[in-house]
Amino acid sequence: MSDSFLSQEEIDALLRNETSTTTMAPASAHLLSDVEIDALGEIGNISMGSAATTMSVLLSRKVEITTPRVSIGRLVEMRKEYPMPYIIVEVRFTEGVSGTNLLAMKEKDAAIIADLMMGNDGSNPPENMSELYMSAVAEAMNQMMGATATSLSSIFKNRVDLAPPKVRLIDLAGNDNITDSLNDVDPLARIAFRMVVEGLIDSEIMLILPLSVARDMVDGLLHSTAPTPMPQPAKPVTAPSMATAPAATQQPYVAPPTPARGPAATMDQNVMVQPAQFAPLKQTVLNASDSNIGMIMDVPLQVTVELGRTRKLIREILELAPGSVVELDKLAGEPVDILVNGKIVAKGEVVVIDENFGVRITGIVSMQERASTLQ
To answer: How many domains does the chain have?
Structure first.
């Protein structure tokens, strides 16, 4: 192309409302400065580090989210670069930052994460995401983005809060609407991370931000780290003296001499230091009188009879239905625990009194047993 004329190919592209990636790259590169791009990468690195820790706890596997790469582009270019199904998590900021961001994860990676959360080993995830698996992914992303919001609050030194995330499965190769907050030609900031889940996933996830949100985050980081200006030294003020007459000249204030600590203490004398002497500490036993106990007799306490306990996986909890039987950790006929304000104090057996259940005390828990249950 010459300096004054467009080529026929470029004219045809404009008539078709098309623009190549190479044509947009120089213009997009100036939408954020190098400093802003570096700051955006640092924000993503810190926030996703906290998200990786949360995911490690949820999945009981080591999770690493590292190597942020910041680029400026558009959704239409991302569709061409990643023509495959993605889980899109849309999160709206409600406090601290204005706008919406998107987290994009490949469907197969999300299926492995959901499989791990369902109690499986993640080696054989389903090919298609069912409603149950989508719910598991939504919970994982909710925890992940919550950790991200906490990190952003720490970075910006200001509270950052999020609305519950919206999770959808979208094929980027198609024409499905990804979000209402962005169209396909709006410039956006994309932060790509390498995500590694121990022995299962070595892939990429993307954080997609409208430029307004990206700039808001960068401003929050730069303002929070800006050096505080040193206070200027105050000008000395001469304290006025008490005037005895209107025409008397004010004299400069002279501080009174500091009294010595003791009659014999001077700057030129040595001070003798001796260890302090204390009387020996004797252990005394306080006997509670009936009058003292009477002061707390009317304090209400919560008494609970615990039949037993058990632990279940998320998958097993979601499968519960009327008629399901939950097995507890106590044997039939074994004494039940009696707790007062959550602390075990006695054992007993369940009885029926008229039409109500009751418990007959069979033993009082010793002080040593009660102490062992304290947290």
So the answer is: 2
